[in-house]
Amino acid sequence: SQKIEQNSEALNIQEGKTATLTCNYTNYSPAYLQWYRQDPGRGPVFLLLIRENEKEKRKERLKVTFDTTLKQSLFHITASQPADSATYLCALEPSSNTGKLIFGQGTTLQVKP
Amino acid sequence: EPEVTQTPSHQVTQMGQEVILRCVPISNHLYFYWYRQILGQKVEFLVSFYNNEISEKSEIFDDQFSVERPDGSNFTLKIRSTKLEDSAMYFCASSEALIQPQHFGDGTRLSIL
After folding, report:
1. Does B88 touch chain A if contact means CB atoms closer than 8 Å?
2. Which of A8, A50, A82, B14 is 20–30 Å from B28 (CA)?
């Protein structure tokens, strides 16, 4: 069956450390992956998009990798801050070419001062 | 920065009643979407819409659901006869093109009594 899985356990780290979040997928062949941030009671906010021919993408303190062999994307936040505390969602389009996104369940990150 | 706006923020409706959720997507965007998120669960795709037609719909989007772009700015989701299990947060999103970030509104919380 098709799955997209993120660590369901919350990730607790100390301010200043690097947070690494994992997204694994099964039985999909996505052309790209997206990462979103969601705060309680708010809609998802787009962070990064990485295509299948890109190994790595960066934006300020954020970095995402995409390994189509391992069927995995890693999302890194360097020099983390308490304001980075939120739920992070990965999403992929299952080759439908209609913009339909399938989301993972999200990983909640807590950055402690 | 332009944003997607949704109204109302909270809708309480009796089971069996019709409800219309409203969205104003970003003005130059061409692709429109509805997603929903049941409390504590994943964001789930409902429907994508382009060029005044549904591009794709999920199994959730049955005959009780419909979407409309009645004018150049609004995008609506109608549920004809609501059920208890329709209680969720409903998010509207829009994008300029395919394989582009989707911009989400902050949702309408729908409570069916």
Report:
1. no
2. A50
